[in-house]
Amino acid sequence: MNDGLIPRRYAKALLKFAHEKGQDARVYALMQSLGDCLASQPALGKSITNPFVNASDKANLLTIASGATAKDSVFADFIKLLIDNNRIDLMRHIALAYLEMYRKANNIFLVSITSAAPLADKDLARLKSVITSHVGSASVEYETAVDPDLIGGFVVKIDSERLDASIKNELKQLRLKLLSK
Predict the structure, then answer these.
(1) What pLDDT score was predicted for residue 96?
(2) SS3 call for 156
(3) Which end of the chain offers a freer environment for a tag, N or C, measured as fewer CB atoms within 10 Å?
(4) Rounded to a whole number, what is the largest CA-CA distance in the chain?
(5) How far is CA 164 from CA 109, 124, 141, 175, in A?
(6) pTM score of the predicted model
């Protein structure tokens, strides 16, 4: 089974259905919450893929993890569809595919900023303004992280673009340059 093709098809169908119902932005928010919860709670993902956990419990777990309410009928119907088709174990992959498709359809860039230490507010604001001017009129969602292994500086990822202004990268480049001589 291809874990990429099947989740993408379900995500595409969900995006189309949610758009028709005017709920695509709400489903996007639910999928973001669900994706974050699945990433931070590995036990949740194991429960969803466990064949000994019954389908209604899996649906309840996903509903709670996403923050869905009784008004989120599109999301509830989608969960029911996945259960009926025995595809509930692909929910994490479907959520990630949905997020990617929604961002592409709505011209939203996902920007990841990783620094060696937490950035000061003014530095972060300055970096965000440079990124905003780079992407133009597109919307931007930011994720920030701290990685002490960078030693200093930062790494910015904008979809498939990467700007590595870290000391770790500079040292690596210097080492390669010295070795090539």
Answers:
(1) 95
(2) strand
(3) C
(4) 66
(5) 18, 16, 19, 16
(6) 0.84
**Residue 140, beta-bridge partner list:** 109
Query: Are 69 and 111 in contact, with CB atoms under 8 Å apart?
Result: no
CA distance 72 to 27: 8
**Using CA atoms, how far apart are residues 103 and 49, in angstroms rounded to an integer?**
27
Tokens of 141: 């969602």
* 42-98: pLDDT as tens digits: 999 999 999 999 999 999 999 999 999 999 999 999 999 999 999 999 999 999 999
Q: Is the CB of residue 166 less than 8 Å from the CB of residue 155? A: yes
User: Quick check: 83 and 59 in contact, CB under 8 A?
Assistant: yes
Residue 137 CB neighbours (<10 A): 6
The set of residues, in sequence order, having a beta carbon less than 8 Å from that of 144 and lying 6+ positions away, is 112, 113, 114, 115, 119, 124
Sole residue written with tokens 């869905």: 68
DSSP character string of 90-120? GHHHHHHHHHHHHHHHTTEEEEEEEESSPPP
